[in-house]
């Protein structure tokens, strides 16, 4: 006889960033973070903030895998969450139903959750916008999910082609959502000053009329370029 799996597997205790480390990422543009991580770290381009809603977010990943057409795991993650967490809900990119609407997200706001990220869909847009809670998703549908499980809470998930572990730092803006692995966060933070300096320098030159940067001009004038008559 095959035993039915548990409805949910929940891990509540995992490593989290300290307050000072987390604060260092608040308000940092996602593009700066990507540059500090070697050019990667942003979730799939389809995962974007809801139009008209807030789009600046920074918090600690509370992960769940809900699977398709179900959100029991999301309720489990909500119950296990702490103030300042970001609910990160993997649905296997399922698009036939939403994973949540304004009521569950309203409960998340009441609990002090800092935002919500999913590779699936949401519904009840008017109600969600009234919450002023950052919500990032792949789209919208009125279809609703079930609450049957199985699912996981507080375990690693793959969402938007990216591995997300509980306790990772989640940063969002209009460009998308970046996941900073907790184990790499101190090193990424230490690189941000250099990224800011380079960006500020180049932005000033662009405002001053720069057309082609010197490092690109050097490549274009090198023997690695072949001119075709």
Quick recap:
The chain is an alpha/beta fold. It has helices at residues 19-23, 30-36, 72-80, 102-111, 125-131, 185-207, 214-220, and strands at 8-10, 48-49, 57-65, 85-90, 98-100, 115-118, 121-122, 135-137, 139-140, 151-153, 157-159, 162-164, 169-173, 176-180.
The CATH topology comes to: Glucose Oxidase, domain 1
Total beta strand runs: 14
Largest sheet: 9 strands, mixed
Low-confidence stretches: none
The CATH class, by name, is: Alpha Beta
Q: What is the total number of structural domains?
A: 1
- Helix/strand-derived category reads alpha/beta
> What gross morphology would you assign?
elongated
Question: How many DSSP H or I helices?
Answer: 7
Compute the separation of the termini in Å. Answer: 75 Å
CATH superfamily: Ribonuclease E inhibitor RraA/RraA-like
Second-tier CATH architecture: 3-Layer(bba) Sandwich
Q: Estimate the strand proportion.
A: 15-25%
Summed over residues and divided by their number, the pLDDT gives a mean of 96
Overall radius of gyration:
20 Å
Along the chain, the helix and strand elements come as: EHHEEHEEHEEHEEEEEEEHH
Helix content range: 25-40%
């Amino acid at each position: 006889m095959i035993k039915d799996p548990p409805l949910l597997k929940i891990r509540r205790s995992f490593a989290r960033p300290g307050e000072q480390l987390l604060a260092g990422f608040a308000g940092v543009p996602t593009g700066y973070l990507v540059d500090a991580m070697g050019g990667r770290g942003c979730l799939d381009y389809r995962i974007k903030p809801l139009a008209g809603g807030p789009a600046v977010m920074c918090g600690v990943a509370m992960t769940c895998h809900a699977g398709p057409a179900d959100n029991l795991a999301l309720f489990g993650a909500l119950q296990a969450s702490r103030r300042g967490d970001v609910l990160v809900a993997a649905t296997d990119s399922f698009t036939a139903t939403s994973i949540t609407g304004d009521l569950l997200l309203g409960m998340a706001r009441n609990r002090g959750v800092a935002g919500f990220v999913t590779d699936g869909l949401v519904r009840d847009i008017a109600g969600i916008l009234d919450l002023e809670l950052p919500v990032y998703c792949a789209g919208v549908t009125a279809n609703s999910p079930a609450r049957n499980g199985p699912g996981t809470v507080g375990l690693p998930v793959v969402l938007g082609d990216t591995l997300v572990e509980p306790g990772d730092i989640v940063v969002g803006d209009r460009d998308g959502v970046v996941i900073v692995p907790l184990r790499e966060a101190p090193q990424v933070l230490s690189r941000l000053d250099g990224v800011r300096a380079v960006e500020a320098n180049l932005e000033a030159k662009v405002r001053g009329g720069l057309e082609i940067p010197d490092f690109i001009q050097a490549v274009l004038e090198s023997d690695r370029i072949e001119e075709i008559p």
